[in-house]
Amino acid sequence: MIIHILAGGPEENVPSLHRWKDAVWIGVDRGVFSLLNKGIVPQKAVGDFDSITSEELQYVREKMQDIELYPSEKDETDLEIALNWAVDQRPTIIRVFGATGGRLDHMFGGIQLLYKGLEKGIRIQMIDQKNIIELCKSGEFESIKDESYPYVSFVPFSPIIENLTLKGFKYPLTNYNLEWGSTLCISNELLEQRGTFSFTKGILMMIRSSD
């Protein structure tokens, strides 16, 4: 199973959703209303819905049955509530849209939520018009060229990434220790259709970016 989540961030940062099909959709706050306007009826709606009008909320109620309405003052963001539910379903991958481009506290909080996937062994990607963000634990991974997001960057999400090796990239590396505060691995590219990256310790953020 694949689960897609649309949060309530600025719609101009959300890519065309037609590329990502055949998934269970969850709408978060205004993201529910946005999905319905795109002709996609989400399986579940989550949020305090403080970013839509009472008329828009009534429209959502008319179109959907599974709606979880939360108070504005709570210990978790709407996105975290939705992501917790998604992780509990044990999907193969979760893709989060509409979580960037607005308030920075929400965006960085959303990036922190990607860690939930590492704990459960579930891939979680955060996607917008220009970026695909994903966290990786130590191991070896295949990277496939994506013409829509040709640039690949690696950013430490832990104090040190030990023995980082990049093969098939324009700027290769062999057993390099990448530390917090370094920009060495920003804006790389795959030379062929496929390449690999590996490391023996740490948590690495991979960011694919468009022009």
TrEMBL record:
<dbReference type="InterPro" id="IPR053149">
    <property type="entry name" value="TPK"/>
</dbReference>
<dbReference type="InterPro" id="IPR036759">
    <property type="entry name" value="TPK_catalytic_sf"/>
</dbReference>
<dbReference type="InterPro" id="IPR007371">
    <property type="entry name" value="TPK_catalytic"/>
</dbReference>
<dbReference type="Pfam" id="PF04265">
    <property type="entry name" value="TPK_B1_binding"/>
</dbReference>
<dbReference type="Pfam" id="PF04263">
    <property type="entry name" value="TPK_catalytic"/>
</dbReference>
<dbReference type="GO" id="GO:0004788">
    <property type="term" value="F:thiamine diphosphokinase activity"/>
</dbReference>
<protein>
    <recommendedName>
        <fullName>Thiamine diphosphokinase</fullName>
        <ecNumber>2.7.6.2</ecNumber>
    </recommendedName>
</protein>
<keyword id="KW-0547">Nucleotide-binding</keyword>
<feature type="domain" description="Thiamin pyrophosphokinase thiamin-binding">
    <location>
        <begin position="139"/>
        <end position="205"/>
    </location>
</feature>
<dbReference type="InterPro" id="IPR006282">
    <property type="entry name" value="Thi_PPkinase"/>
</dbReference>
<keyword id="KW-0808">Transferase</keyword>
<dbReference type="InterPro" id="IPR036371">
    <property type="entry name" value="TPK_B1-bd_sf"/>
</dbReference>
<dbReference type="InterPro" id="IPR007373">
    <property type="entry name" value="Thiamin_PyroPKinase_B1-bd"/>
</dbReference>
<keyword id="KW-0067">ATP-binding</keyword>
<keyword id="KW-0418">Kinase</keyword>
